[in-house]
Amino acid sequence: MQRDSLPEGAAQGGGRQMPTVLVVDDTPDNLAMMAELLGERYRVKVANSGERALKAMQAEALPDLVLLDIMMPGMDGYEVCRRLKASALTRDVPVIFLTARSDVQDERMGLELGAVDYITKPISPPILQARVQTHLALKATADFLRSKSDYLEREVALRTLELQAIQDVTIIALASLAETRDAETGNHIRRTQLYVKALAEQLRRHPRFEQVLTVSMIDLLYKSAPLHDIGKVGVPDHILLKPGRLTAEEFEVAKTHAVLGRKAIESAERRLGMRVRFLDVAKDMACHHHEHWDGTGYPAGLSGEAIPVAARLMAVADVYDAVISTRVYKLAGTHEQACDAITRGRGTQFDPLVVDAFIEIAEDLREIALKFPDPAPQ
After folding, report:
1. What is the 3-state secondary structure (H, E, C) of 181-215?
2. Domain 180-371: which topology?
3. DSSP letters of 303-350?
4. Cβ neighbours of residue 163 under 8 Å, at least 6 residues apart?
5. Which end of the chain is more exposed for a tag (fewer CB within 10 A), N or C?
6. CA of 240: how far to CAs of 104, 112, 149, 243, in Å?
7. What CATH fold (topology level) applies to the domain 13-151?
8. In the beta sheet, which residues pair with residue 359?
9. Distance, CA of 2 to CA of 6 (rounded, Å)
């Protein structure tokens, strides 16, 4: 038997829909009594078996509450409750057990299965009505909070996307500024960006780097890499674009691009009136990618682990691309020459572990270089 005892005028004042209560019991008299006790205030649906109750729960509109008899032929109330709580569709619908059993063990079992309450038979109408009203109010509050939580999660996700977009635009704008002053092409920036990401992903498997090179950190390295040479905007054209070898004095001026890069990013932060943490990686990369593992690099003469990881990665990526690329002062070298230069710098110019990672994926870097070549000279 399955029927709907919805009286005429189901909607309450103001158009608000009546809460729906599903009563599950194998005794017709009990179903009729429950419909009579609850029918004036709620939309009552009934099912005379566990199987029919589960079928009713697959309908488009779920009930707001289930009153569930335990002792039924076939599938008992415990099994019905177990299945309801195992389903993502129905697990949030509160279940109140109705039973003639009064043993504490039976009550504990029902509550452990996920029921919210336990009403013993014979049913006391005032107790039934009070418990139903209480649990429907609790469910309404839970539904509201769940809806609010979903809304807030969507808002957080939207704000996160907006923040990421702002970060990307900031970096792209700064990197574009650097490109306007440098004879190197935008493809150099793209290649070094991809080299750094590939090296980081290879190194994250090493115990010394697994805590540092997280997924979010690698994403930040990838986004920050285009800013590694932003300091070149402060180097005079006659030095930056000089086709021949730089004098010692000119080289000292050219070296200032490392500090200038950090200062340019810090200047942007000051204009914002705050420290922007996602730019910390960019500052490290810009300032320290010419430091040497043995301490002979510039601008700070850092050595070993004191050199930021971002800068150690960019050091290898930048040299590899510099060797294989044509510049105003040199012709392009081969992939093999670039690999030889980096291997020879292991433990002196470069972090040995970064070089080892480079050797492992050198062919991947060659593929990146081939995919993003510099345009042919006009």
Report:
1. CCCCCHHHHHHHHHHHHHHHHHHCCCCCCCCCCCH
2. Hypothetical protein af1432 (1.10.3210)
3. -GGGS-HHHHHHHHHHHHHHHHS-BTTB----HHHHHHHHHHTBTTTB
4. none
5. C
6. 85, 74, 55, 9
7. Rossmann fold (3.40.50)
8. none
9. 13
Question: Angle, nearest 10°, between helix axes 248-255 and 257-272?
Answer: 30
Quick: pLDDT tens for 20-39: 999 999 999 989 998 999 98
Q: For 64-77, b where at least 16 C-beta lie within 10 A, e where not — what string?
A: bbbbbbbebeebbb
The pLDDT tens digits of the residues spanning 67-124 come to 999 889 989 999 999 999 999 888 889 999 988 776 777 778 888 888 888 888 888 8
- Cα separation, 378 vs 276, whole angstroms: 40
Peptide bond into 63 cis (omega under 30): no
Angle formed at CA 221 by CA 220 and CA 226, multiple of 5 degrees: 105
Instruction: Give the tokens for residue 338.
Output: 């670039």
pTM exceeding the 0.70 threshold for the entire prediction? no
Give the C-alpha separation, 11 to 202, whole Å.
63
Reported as half-sphere exposure (CB side, CA atoms, 13 A), residue 117 has a value of 21
Coil vs helix vs strand at 49: coil
Residue 56, classed as helix, strand or coil, is: helix
**CA-based nearest residue to 286, from 177, 209, 210:** 177
Determine phi and psi for 330, rounding to 5 degrees.
-160, 165
- Alpha-carbon distance of 10 to 161, in angstroms, equals 44
| Polymer length of the chain | 378
| pLDDT, the chain, mean | 86
CA atoms within 13 A of residue 54's CA, in its CB half-sphere = 16
* Amino acid at position 366, single letter: R
Residue spans per domain, the chain: 13-151, 180-371
The DSSP 8-state label assigned to residue 235 in this structure reads: S
315, 257 contact by CB (below 8 A): no
Specify whether the backbone of 37 is left (phi greater than 0), alpha (psi in -120 to 50) or beta: alpha
Q: How far is CA 333 from the centre of its chain?
A: 41
